[in-house]
Amino acid sequence: MLEAFHEFFRQLAADYPSWNFIFFYRETEMNRVAQGIWMTIKLSVWCVILSVVIGVVGAWIKGSRHRVASAIVQGYIQFFRNTPPFVQLLFFYFALGQFTPTYSPDGWLEYPIISNVGWAIISLSFFAGAFNVEIFRAGVEAVPESTREAAEALGYTNLKAYIHVVLPLAFRVSLPALNNNLVNLVKTTTQAFAIAVPELLYQAVTIWNDYPSAQNPTMLLLFVVYILLVGILVYGMHRWERAMRIPGYGM
User: Fold this and answer.
1) For residue 228, what is the enclosing H or E element?
2) Beta partners for residue 111, in sequence order
3) Gap between the Cα atoms of 239 and 229, Å rounded
4) Is the dihedral angle over the CA atoms 103, 109, 110, 115 positive or is it negative?
5) pTM of the full predicted structure?
6) Higher-scoring residue by pLDDT: 170, 108
7) Of 5, 186, 218, 233, which one has the fewest beta carbons inside 10 Å?
8) What SS3 state is found at 147?
9) Residue 35 · residue 109 · CB < 8 Å
10) Contact at 8 Å (CB) between 40 and 198?
11) pLDDT the model gives residue 8
């Protein structure tokens, strides 16, 4: 059965040279695609998690009474929202990367403690996190002041009231906007190609550089895989929205 599958695409490439699905019948290229998809998934998951954490913490700091900390968060938001994410990625990797310490496991070669994958995660997480801060801030402001006062009356500190009372309610209000931002973040991970992160786009380019006849199929593969990844994320977020819905409140 598998051999027939491989033979079909070999014959397709022979009959239609511009549609060479080489990754469907050559194991080396199949492994490249699998590794690229896995790296894209890992990159997306880490960026989503860290950007949400940045958004939650940043929204709390911005709404706190500490003016200096709030001003720092506001400056961070303005910087990352008003500069292109591609430029940020290059800045983190080529500029800040020059100042990161290195280590030498074999005594000969020096390796930076933060790899290109690490810088991609940091840069993209900070970029999306800046938008998440504003999303969660809007959600926090939607929570009635009387709810916060009730939490304080019960003996909650400002931090505990935020974690246990305000944030769960704000999360419900923020989920639709958060959904859109996280979808954009997953699509933005393709920019990690610029610093040689071996995600799906990078692997696709290496395949069609080696086999120009595979350019159309690899572009089609990219299109389909990202539709599936984004579709899974959107479906999961919508399920989460419905599960967290409180009748008469928020969404």
Assistant:
1) helix 215-244
2) 103
3) 16
4) negative
5) 0.88
6) 170
7) 5
8) helix
9) no
10) no
11) 87
Mean per-residue pLDDT of the chain: 88
Question: Which structural domains are found in the chain, ordered by start?
Answer: 51-100+112-200 (1.10.3720.10)
Q: Are 166 and 143 in contact (CB under 8 A)?
A: yes
pLDDT digits (tens, 9 = 90+) for 155-211: 888 888 888 888 888 888 888 888 899 999 999 999 999 999 999 999 999 998 999
What whole-number distance in Å separates Cα of residue 225 and Cα of residue 33?
10
What's the CA gap between 184 and 121, in Å, rounded? 15
- Residue 10 has phi, psi (to 5 degrees) of -65, -45
Taken in order 164, 167, 173, 176, the sign of the CA dihedral is negative
Task: Give the whole-angstrom CA distance, residue 83 versus residue 11.
Answer: 48
Q: Tokens 């799906």 appear where?
A: 200
Write out pLDDT tens, residues 56-106: 999 989 887 788 999 999 999 999 999 999 999 999 999 988 888 888 777
- How far CA 246 is from CA of 6, 63, 173, 193, in Å, comes to 51, 24, 10, 41
Closest CA relative to residue 86, chosen from 10, 227, 204, 189: 189
